[in-house]
Design brief:
By secondary structure, the chain is mostly helical. It has helices at 9-23, 25-59, 62-78, 82-94, 98-109, 114-121, 129-138, 144-168, 185-219, 222-234, 238-249, 251-258, 265-277, 279-289, 298-322.
């Protein structure tokens, strides 16, 4: 009996993407240029300093020192070590994926266990104030007040999401040792810069890749078709649907698609949803930072979904009352 060979689903998908890329080469090139512009204007200036600072502080043993101060609060509220709580601070100030980079560095150094690192990834990798206030508040809604309120909602959603993972995974933070030894400052800085260059290249690579994918889908009419379907079935405007779909893939593209939307409770909730989710691009950026450690990224995806849902639920009444 003659055997038949079937192309695996992944192979068929890869061939389909290759064909779409060849047929839409101009759109792909334009998407690549636009993404590189986003990287140079926003991502590298806002993230690279935090990557260096996070890696440098970890090498110098700062998570261990912070652990002494934050341990009672962190263990009581989230069941994490004080060293792990420092990742929450980095994640809420540095932006995606600075929190994940900090967690990966601490897990590799032994400051937190792999089990604790996985729980930390669920709620300590967040968008930062520079993006929320600058890109979304001012860039989309033309309002610093809206950006600050969005940042407050984002923080509240992350803190609330962390409580869910405490109840589900109690106690493993106690295994993590607290390291207080400091490395040589010059060697630590050299290592921090080297790691940060690799990390920022990974981040920009995924941003460009997903932006090109969206550009190709848009040129083939698939994005417009899906937007039209959602708008017709759910009564949303086409720009609203386009921003939602683009933001599910890549946060920068979703934010750019929101430009022109009025500052209303639904659009404010959409902004909270997209910034809380971060896009598939952020999830893959995070996975790329975990390749040298034992921690897995499954809880990161769960945490982003939870944080996005909580953020959207908080943002709607916030906009009704305060905007």
């Amino acid at each position: 009996m003659k055997k038949t060979h079937h192309i695996p689903a992944q192979g068929a998908l890869a061939l389909s993407l290759l064909a779409a890329l060849l047929l839409s080469s101009e759109a792909a090139a334009e998407g690549c240029r636009a993404a590189l512009g986003v990287c140079t204007r926003l991502i590298i200036p806002s993230l690279f300093p935090f990557f260096v600072l996070s890696s440098y502080c970890t090498a110098l043993g700062l998570p261990g020192h912070l652990g002494r101060l934050l341990a009672p609060f962190a263990m009581r509220l989230y069941g994490i070590s004080g060293a792990g709580a420092s990742a929450l601070l980095i994640g809420l100030t540095g932006g995606y994926p600075a929190g994940a980079a900090c967690i990966a560095d601490m897990e590799k150094s032994g400051a937190v266990t792999a089990a604790e690192a996985e729980r930390l990834l669920a709620f300590c990798n967040n968008s930062g104030p520079a993006f929320l206030v600058g890109a979304v508040g001012v860039g989309v809604f033309h309002s610093v007040r809206a950006g600050l309120l969005l940042y407050a909602v984002h923080i509240a959603a992350a803190l609330l999401a962390g409580l869910f993972f405490r109840r589900r995974f109690p106690g493993d933070a106690a295994e993590a040792p607290v390291f207080l030894d400091s490395a040589d400052p010059a060697a630590a800085l050299t290592q921090a810069v080297r790691r940060s260059v690799t990390a920022i290249l990974n981040v920009c690579g995924f941003v460009v890749s997903f932006s090109v994918l969206l550009a190709v889908l848009n040129s083939r009419g698939l994005l417009s078709l899906l937007c039209g379907f959602l708008s017709e079935r759910l009564g949303w405007s086409l720009p609203f649907s386009r921003a939602l779909i683009a933001g599910l893939f890549e946060l920068g593209s979703g934010t750019a698609a929101m430009e022109g939307l009025a500052l209303t409770p639904p659009s404010f909730a959409l902004a909270a949803l997209l910034t809380g989710w971060g896009g598939l691009s952020v999830h893959y950026q995070t996975l790329s930072l975990l390749t040298d450690g034992k921690a897995k990224g499954a809880l990161h995806l769960t945490g982003r979904l939870l944080s996005a849902s909580i953020g959207a639920a908080l943002a709607y009444p916030t906009a009704l009352l305060l905007l």
